[in-house]
Fold this protein.
Amino acid sequence: MTDLQHQNIRLIRIVSDLLLLAQVDRSSVRSNPDTCQLNEIIEDLVEELGSLAAQRQITISIEQPLDPVTVRGEVDRVTRLVNNLLENAIKYTPIGGKVSVGIERTKTYIRLKVIDTGIGIPLAEQPKIFDRFYRVNSDRARQTGGTGLGLAIVIL
């Protein structure tokens, strides 16, 4: 793929992210949200992102076999959320590292866990990472193609 093609894909992704954020800003909360299977989304994305992880010599896995888990949310948005978290984990994990994903379930909540052997986020920066266009280190984000929108989309 040429540099021009890479830049074109990057611009398409930025525009798509901006459109999604604008759409969410305009819309109100739906009274009857859709439901989707979180375990299926995770399994599909781990398989899809396997080649990206393999290119970086990173092992991506599911912590343990996932039981069926139904969550409220539009399948496209939940998929985007999980995808953004996994892609970030892969991007910021050094060659030879590991990324795993799992679900923790209690009586009151479901927690999606993405664990990696990446570089981490300094404690002082953590409160800002979900702000739109915020990047922990602009030099690091420039190397990985980050825009500062991925985690802003995750909290939608």
Notes: The mean pLDDT is 79.
